[in-house]
Design a protein that fits this description.
Length: 363
């Protein structure tokens, strides 16, 4: 069933959701020398500051759970500022995508350490409870669900929320993603792996951090939301597929996700705008090129679709990347500068999972 985007909130290097999407549209990029991270180039013994897309001030000096809480706090404040009614009613289901605590080297209880779902739930409960406490809010824990798994974690959370809306046909779901690749543990690991963009490694990515919250309700025709003025942003369908380790970057799995969305697009419709989580790494560049070839084979008219890359403005934001793509598309629809009335938000996880979200402007 279609879902209606009612409100959004964001915390990012470019600011809250309205400011950030406007800045991205204008081509503004605020990546700069990190205040607390240096690296040594292979040809030099001199330390150089690492370029990063850090959230201004609020996350400085924080790490681990504290950093995630700081990001989520700003995100929910932005969400609530844009709403006339409370965003978090007791019956609202909350779906939170966040990094695996193992990646953050956080202490985990022995009984859950070997079970990814249980350790993700433990971290999620801690982060969400602490954030709500700082905001002076309460919410029933029975309505919380948590997801990890890299770039497609948000897609999994969104999938669960859309299924819940289809089941209930009323109410709302809050889908949230929070991640930071500037956490000291994560950042140092990425430097050691040679994945970050430095002066001697230009094909790496610029690390970033972000939080995004999206409030969804059922299809406007059911919820009554269509009575309002202005364009409506609709989530039409979400497709998820998996690839093997040997084939995950050849574009086949991502193309299969796009192919699953074709029945919901008119045969003669203009090419949808593609919003990719491509970050500058070689394997993602290879997948992107292969996807474009496969898409042209699906529909020859889709020769040169418009393509946007949020990582240029926001940096690599991990499991928040798909959520940022959703916000970029939604604001483009609301402001009327989207090249077509459809957008496809693409996500590729390091673990081989792929996702594609079809969004539509109505009205």
């Amino acid at each position: 069933m279609d879902a209606h985007v009612m409100a959004m909130g964001m915390s990012s290097c470019l600011g809250p959701v309205v400011t950030a999407c406007a800045a991205f549209r204008a081509g503004i990029r605020l990546a700069g020398a990190s205040l607390d991270a240096d690296y040594f180039a292979a040809d030099s013994n001199e330390a150089h500051p690492l370029d990063a897309c850090a959230i201004p001030s609020s996350t400085f000096g924080f790490s681990g759970i504290g950093r995630l809480v700081a990001i989520l706090h700003e995100t929910l404040v932005d969400l609530c500022c844009g709403m006339s009614a409370p965003a978090l009613e007791p019956e609202t289901r909350v779906y939170l995508a966040l990094p695996d605590p193992v990646d953050l080297e956080l202490p985990v209880e022995p009984e859950v350490a070997g079970v990814p779902k249980k350790r993700t739930d433990a971290l999620g409960r801690c982060v969400l409870a602490m954030t709500l406490q700082t905001l002076g809010l309460t919410h029933p824990k029975a309505n919380w669900r948590f997801f990890s798994g890299g770039h497609t974690a948000f897609a999994r959370a969104l999938e669960a929320a859309m299924k819940e809306l289809e089941r209930r046909r009323q109410g709302s779901c809050l889908v949230v993603a929070v991640d930071s690749l500037l956490d000291p543990v994560v950042r140092e690991g990425l430097l050691m792996e040679g994945r970050l963009k430095t002066r001697d490694h230009p094909v790496g990515f610029t690390p970033g951090e972000a939080g995004v919250a999206v409030l969804l309700r059922p299809d406007p025709a059911i919820s009554g939301a269509s009575k309002g003025s202005g364009p409506k942003v609709i989530l039409r369908r979400l497709a998820i597929a998996s690839a093997t380790a040997a084939t995950q970057w050849n574009g086949q799995a991502l193309a299969s996700c796009v192919e699953q969305l074709l029945p919901f697009l008119e045969p003669a419709s203009a090419a949808p705008t593609l919003i990719s989580d491509h970050t500058g790494e070689e394997n993602r560049a290879s997948e992107w090129g292969s996807l474009r070839v496969r898409m042209k084979a699906m529909r020859p008219a889709w020769d040169t679709p418009a393509a946007w890359f949020p990582a240029i403005g926001f940096g690599e934001t991990g499991c928040a990347s798909g959520a940022i793509g959703l916000c970029v598309a939604a604001r483009a629809f609301e402001r009327g500068y989207a090249p077509s009335r459809h957008c496809i938000v693409l996500s590729s996880s390091e673990g081989g999972e792929r996702a594609a979200l079809l969004m539509e402007r109505q009205g």
